């Protein structure tokens, strides 16, 4: 084995600087190439925690930029959540809880489907409204899993939205055609979850 | 092949109801078993979009429940983001931007390390403060990747926090010992990202 010379702090610092400068060159090039500005379609899918909360975090960011946002919730039916209590006071937000609750609570497919269709009518109104900069369609993906909505109709409505409008769709098992249509897709995988280890859903964390 | 009898809507509805009732039994049992109430440690890691925004979405939920929160940012150095503009007006939030910016921008490891150590001193003050219900340590994981902080010290400080305090840690490549210590871990995998397809980082979406 070849002997290696000891590396003093200055040399290590210079190497770090060289490596970071090369990284900066690559990243600056990528930033220069990413010049298109238009409304994006984000999909937060997967089995882990964070799909809806990431959408609400982006909404906070958008509101801080002076934008206007709307939320349509397709499954949840609680109106006493922390997120609603918090955002309700913000005049830039319109919030619609339009679900009937979890499918295992309603146990009524026809009622679930009717609720989803009403929710989509509300969503479509926002997809035609240029005043809305960000539209969150929370738990929309379940409407495809259970056959409550026609995916092609939804994709056509999304494609026809105002060019600068951003949309975030959340929910498990996003269908492939939705992923294909999206600009940014994150699969939020559950590595572990407190609930599975006997810890209750707590206010501030889960609702 | 055996002929199957046609299924009328009533039969399908009954089958759906039966299946959902069985699902409800399982889920109700799980909820009954998850009775522990204590502060949880969440880790949002992975290469995809949503790690920090999910933390801020949970914070909105916590604030809506009347809780108090603090944010310490370990890498980011921008103070003109939408999230800061939005949450700055909320008296329940303390926000500390303590990073020096991306490593490829500073190109100075000693400066990055000193900044991370100052940020950890701030974090530790909150980890000793029972008035803080939720502490967000944004992009903390990079401190381990680059050797700015000692992981065992950080884990010991986290373990000694008030029993009902929730903590959310974000950043890529969370070390295994941090994952082991956490209650809930989500790996946010990038399926696709608008930036990689030539779309600029836009206000309201990325900052």
UniProtKB/TrEMBL annotation, chains A, B:
**Pathway as given in its UniProt record:** Cofactor biosynthesis; adenosylcobalamin biosynthesis; adenosylcobalamin from cob(II)yrinate a,c-diamide: step 2/7
Coiled coil location: none
Q: Where is the composition biased (Basic and acidic residues)?
A: 13-23
Q: What is this protein called?
A: Corrinoid adenosyltransferase
Asked if the record carries the keyword Flavoprotein, the reply is no
Subcellular location as annotated: Cytoplasm
Name the species this protein comes from.
Dentiradicibacter hellwigii
As for what it does, the entry says:
Required for both de novo synthesis of the corrin ring for the assimilation of exogenous corrinoids. Participates in the adenosylation of a variety of incomplete and complete corrinoids.
Keyword Transferase annotated: yes
Question: Could you say which protein family the record assigns here?
Answer: Belongs to the Cob(I)alamin adenosyltransferase family.
Q: Which GO terms describe its molecular function?
A: corrinoid adenosyltransferase activity
The Cob(I)alamin adenosyltransferase N-terminal domain is annotated at 14-31
Superkingdom = Bacteria
Classification lineage: Bacteria, Pseudomonadati, Pseudomonadota, Betaproteobacteria, Rhodocyclales
Q: What class of enzyme is it?
A: transferase
Q: Which gene encodes it?
A: cobO
**Catalyses which reaction(s):** 2 cob(II)alamin + reduced [electron-transfer flavoprotein] + 2 ATP = 2 adenosylcob(III)alamin + 2 triphosphate + oxidized [electron-transfer flavoprotein] + 3 H(+); 2 cob(II)yrinate a,c diamide + reduced [electron-transfer flavoprotein] + 2 ATP = 2 adenosylcob(III)yrinate a,c-diamide + 2 triphosphate + oxidized [electron-transfer flavoprotein] + 3 H(+)
The record's keywords, sorted A to Z, are: ATP-binding, Cobalamin biosynthesis, Cytoplasm, Nucleotide-binding, Porphyrin biosynthesis, Transferase
E.C. number(s) listed in UniProt: 2.5.1.17
Question: Region annotation Disordered: residue ranges?
Answer: 1-23
């Amino acid at each position: 084995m070849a002997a290696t010379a000891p590396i003093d702090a200055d040399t290590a610092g210079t190497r770090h600087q060289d490596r970071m400068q090369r990284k900066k060159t690559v990243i600056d090039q990528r930033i220069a190439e990413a010049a298109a500005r238009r409304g994006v379609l984000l999909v937060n899918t997967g089995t882990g925690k964070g799909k809806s909360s990431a959408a609400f975090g982006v909404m906070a960011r958008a509101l801080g930029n002076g934008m206007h946002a709307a939320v349509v919730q397709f499954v949840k039916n609680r109106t006493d959540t922390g997120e609603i209590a918090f955002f309700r006071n913000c005049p830039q937000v319109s919030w619609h809880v339009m679900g009937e609750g979890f499918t295992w609570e309603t146990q009524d497919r026809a009622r679930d489907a009717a609720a989803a269709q009403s929710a989509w009518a509300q969503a479509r109104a926002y997809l035609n409204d240029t005043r809305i900069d960000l539209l969150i369609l929370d738990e929309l993906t379940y409407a495809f899993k259970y056959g409550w909505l026609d995916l092609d109709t939804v994709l056509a409505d999304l494609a026809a939205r105002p060019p600068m409008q951003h949309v975030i769709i959340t929910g498990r098992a996003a269908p492939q055609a939705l992923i294909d249509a999206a600009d940014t897709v994150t699969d939020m995988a559950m590595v572990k979850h407190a609930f599975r280890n006997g810890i209750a859903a707590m206010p501030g964390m889960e609702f």
